[in-house]
């Protein structure tokens, strides 16, 4: 099975690096971008199977990035992550779902929950169950 490509768009160097290590160890190819503009350019140059994007970033922030990517690629799977910001993470995560994010996570999130969501989204034909919601950090956009 060929490796899947995941694009991580995150302005925090430490979180970006940690996500790269986590996802690489899980067998994925990982591209990195530090903001939405860089992420969109990277995606257009080398499309990914899945996007993980922070929402609060300088330059082009995550909500704009999600809207732009979904406009060009409506079926693209996107995981949005946020630790809050000025208006709190729930408002940003709700807005991300409205903009087209498939799954959202509140920072800090558990690595196993993120990997479970990644696997589920990348294996859409499988009968995998949704990730556990025990930590209340995970929410899936069901389109309802």
Structure description:
This protein is an alpha/beta fold and 144 residues long. The protein has a single domain, classed as Response regulator (Rossmann fold). 40% of the residues lie in helices and 19% in strands. The protein has helices at residues 13-25, 36-45, 62-72, 89-99, 111-122, and strands at 5-9, 29-33, 50-54, 77-82, 103-106, 138-140. α3 links the parallel β3 and β4 (77-82). Residues 125-136 have low confidence and may be disordered.
Short description:
With 144 residues, the protein is α/β, with parallel strands linked by helices. The chain has helices at 13-25, 36-45, 62-72, 89-99, 111-122; strands spanning 5-9, 29-33, 50-54, 77-82, 103-106, 138-140. Strands 2-1-3-4-5-6 form a 6-stranded mixed sheet, sandwiched between helices.
Percent helix? 25-40%
Which strand order does the major sheet show? Answer: 2-1-3-4-5-6
Number of strands: 6
The percent range for strand residues is 15-25%
Structural class: alpha/beta
CATH superfamily: Response regulator
Could you spell the SSE succession in H and E letters? EHEHEHEHEHE
Taking all Cα atoms into account, the compactness measure Rg is 14 Å
In the CATH scheme, what's the topology name? Rossmann fold
Low-confidence stretches: 125-136
Q: Which CATH C-level class is it?
A: Alpha Beta
Tally of separate domains:
1
Q: Distance N terminus to C terminus?
A: 33 Å
Total helical elements:
5
Q: Based on Cα principal axes, name the global outline.
A: globular
């Amino acid at each position: 099975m060929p490796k899947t490509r995941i694009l991580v768009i995150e302005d925090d160097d430490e979180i970006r690096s940690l996500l790269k290590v986590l996802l690489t160890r899980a067998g994925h190819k990982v591209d990195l971008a530090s903001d939405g503009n860089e992420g969109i350019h990277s995606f257009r140059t080398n499309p990914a199977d899945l996007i993980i994007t922070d929402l609060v970033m300088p330059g082009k922030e995550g909500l704009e990035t999600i809207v732009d990517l979904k406009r060009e690629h409506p079926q693209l799977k996107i995981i949005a992550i946020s630790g809050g910001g000025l208006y709190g993470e729930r408002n940003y995560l709700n807005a991300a779902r409205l903009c087209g994010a498939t799954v959202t996570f509140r920072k800090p999130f558990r690595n196993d929950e993120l990997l479970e969501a990644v696997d589920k989204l990348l294996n859409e034909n499988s009968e995998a169950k949704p990730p556990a919601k025990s930590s209340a950090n995970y929410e899936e956009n069901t389109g309802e």
